Amino acid sequence: MPDGASRDSAMAEISEAPTSSDPPNTKSEEEHFDPKTMRKTKPGLKRLFLTLTVFISFLIALPFLLKSIEIYRAPLPFEDIDLLSTEMEKNHLVFPCQFQAVFVNFDDITAVNELGLLIDSHMQKLTLENSPPCGTCGNNVTVAVTIDSSSNCIHNESGNGDGKWQCGMLNGFDKVNDHDEDFDEYLESLLDSKNRKVYTVVVMNRKQEDVRIVVGQYRHAWIVGNDSVEKAVEKMAEIFIKVFVNGGKEEGSIRGEFMPVGADGKVVLSFSLLNSDPHDWVYDWDFKELAEILLAPVVDALRPVADISVESQVLYHTPKSSYSYWDDTQGSYIFSTKDLPFFVNSNEWHLDTSTAAGGRSKVLHFVLYVPSAKECPLKLQLPNGEISMTNGFISPMWGGIIVWNPPACVENFQMQHLSRHKISSEDLKMISEVFMGQLRQLFGLKSESLYVGGFATSVLLTSDKGFAEWELDVLSRHHTCFNLLQCGTTLGSLSRLVQSLPRMIIMDEIGKQVKYSLEAAKLSLGNVSLGYSDASAVSSRKARALAEDAFYHPSMMSVSYYSFEHCFAVYSPFFLPVSLHVLLAVIREWKRYKVENRKYLAWKVKVKVE
């Protein structure tokens, strides 16, 4: 027993020996250390570094992803477009106009400056009270007055330089009224209005002669007869404003919807000869002769306004769709103006065979209709009951039709089937004159050779090319106004469309077209301020055509546009789940690192305190 007790006590001493060998404060540290709020080692950065590496790699790849789905957009000058649109909407184009009044054989007047003010005052009365119509002169006019008498040659202050009237040049023309064309050419040789662009009215005081007014084919007119100065001034002002500026139209401007020019500045004149029933007779024409008589001068004269091309065709089996009836009084078949909307047979008249018919070029049809023997002669009855002298009519923005009754139906004899005939040169010349009148009406001008004004009736001389110089000026001014308005509207619509669709493709070609369109529009506005009507019309036509080309570019009309929502819906199933998990992992690791670091800092503070 004593031996066992001694062994137990010895073992107890041995087990307690290690405990007694530990540092004195170890026990206290273990008691104050909380593993939930403290840690003895510094937290590692490996996990945080790995998650940040994956996250940064995603951020680096993001620009490449955005680049792969980027929509190319050429830069457009939106500010310049807005300036042009605003200017065209608020400010009407006003051309500077130079007028010249010449009083010949008025010995009792010398107050030349007062005459200029009087003419200007009458012109202001004839101008519309509101803002001047686009394409006119408005108040931007200068009036030069000359008194050419046997005793005086007086010019007012507005006349200057080589533009002054040379006194005494009309002494040799005693019979002015007998040869209007010759006198017109003589005045042109004196005035050179083609180069000077000055509108001149010459008043010649002739005793014992009735007052007669003639407007020449250039840029001048003359008044001959026994007339007072006051009445002559009124007639002058009317010719200046109503004829030379407004073109003989009361509204003073051609309405835009009746501009027979395509958006690309081109016009196709399509001439068709329609044989209603070739079993009765077949007629053909020498279109080359018609082109030489009518078309060549017209194409050249209207070149500033439109790029004109010509084509022709002969069609058969083309009956009309309207009704006609026999009139014993007239001895012919009659169709009235009420039947005109139904005259064109769209099912049988295959007129739209031009290559330009499907484009943006304007096609004007000129139809020569040869009726069948069953309705020949066929005549057009006007609303007043009279028979039309031309036997033709126009349809605005479509073209014109002439019903030509062949000599065979008048002679009333039987003809062989399918017999071919050719329209004579005399008939072709008369037909060309009617076509010319219809073309003038389609362009908004008068077809008759008289202008009935408020003070007098003026004779309008015709030109070999179909349009007088002052009429071409009117067309150029009005077409310039219309083209620039359309250009501003089209570019404004394009600007709003592009800015509203940020992912629409804008090719470099569109940017160039917009740039060149703005440059052409600015050039046209500069020519307007200088009074160059022809040059302004050419530039405005180019500006409008380029604006239309940009707006209707094939890339703008393609299906390549898609919205950001569509792009997000396509790519989000591929990248959103992974990206979300990586982002959440970074956030989680960052929070864990901050918590573990706070634990380590708390332990260090605890150790320092103890």
Helix count equals 16
Largest sheet: 8 strands, mixed
Percent of residues in helical segments?
A: 40-55%
Number of strands: 18
Using the alpha-carbon principal axes, give the shape. elongated
Transmembrane segments: 48-66
Region (Disordered): 1-38
Biased composition (Basic and acidic residues): 27-37
GO biological process, one term: GPI anchor biosynthetic process
Characterise this structure.
The chain is α/β, with parallel strands linked by helices. The protein has 16 helices and 18 strands. It has an eight-stranded mixed β-sheet with strand order 3-2-1-4-6-5-18-17, sandwiched between helices. A five-stranded mixed β-sheet has the order 9-7-12-15-14, covered by helices on one side. Helix 3 packs antiparallel against helix 16, helix 4 (78-90) packs across helix 12 and helix 5 (112-126) crosses helix 8. It is elongated and about 140 Å long. Keywords: Endoplasmic reticulum, Glycoprotein, GPI-anchor biosynthesis, Membrane, Transmembrane, Transmembrane helix.
Question: In short, what is this structure?
Answer:
The chain is of the alpha/beta class. It is built from 16 helices and 18 strands.
Quickly list its features.
610 residues; PtdIno-glycan_biosynth_class_S; 18 strands; eight-stranded mixed β-sheet; 16 helices; GPI transamidase component PIG-S; alpha/beta; five-stranded mixed β-sheet; single chain
